[in-house]
Amino acid sequence: MSAMPVIISRAKLVFIDIEPDSFEINIEKIKLKITANTKRIISVPMWGYSTCTSELLQISKDYNVPIIEDTAQAIGTINKGKYSELFRIKLVCINNKIK
User: Fold this and answer.
1) To the nearest whole number, what is the mean pLDDT of the chain?
2) Cα–Cα distance for residue pair 56/49, rounded to 1 Å
3) Domains contained in the chain, CATH given
4) Contacts of residue 18, Cβ cutoff 8 Å, sequence gap at least 6
5) Are 26 and 8 in contact (CB under 8 A)?
6) Angle 39-83-74 (CA atoms, 0-180°, nearest 5)?
């Protein structure tokens, strides 16, 4: 769960909804939610749908807020000819524990 490190560190977690047709994060809502206290944007692509669009990268640059992309659920996702997990900071955690 991508939110757990934030919860454990007792930081404030803000969720942004997705676009229902494309499953991409709602860029306009991100802009509305960013404050002086915003430390990171955590992007979580799912089922082969990339969330790290050029618009999100531009927001990261404009607001000087790094993106952490949790690609565990979308390894191999391609966005504009590039693998999604090659963007900025990536996090891939696969639980291989067999019960």
Assistant:
1) 77
2) 14
3) 4-91 (3.40.640.10)
4) 24, 25, 26
5) no
6) 70
For the record, the structure tokens of 18 come out as: 């997705």
Strand partners, 82: 79
**How far is 99 from 4, CA to CA, in rounded Å?**
22
Task: Check residue 99 and give its pLDDT.
Answer: 52
For the full predicted model, state whether its pTM sits above 0.85.
Answer: no
Q: Supply 65's token pair.
A: 């807020």
Categorize the per-residue pLDDT at 1 as very low, low, confident or very high, splitting at 50, 70 and 90. low
Place of tokens 């992007």: 43
54: helix, strand or coil: helix
pLDDT digits (tens, 9 = 90+) for 22-51: 777 788 899 999 999 999 888 877 777 767
Tokens read off for 64? 């000087």
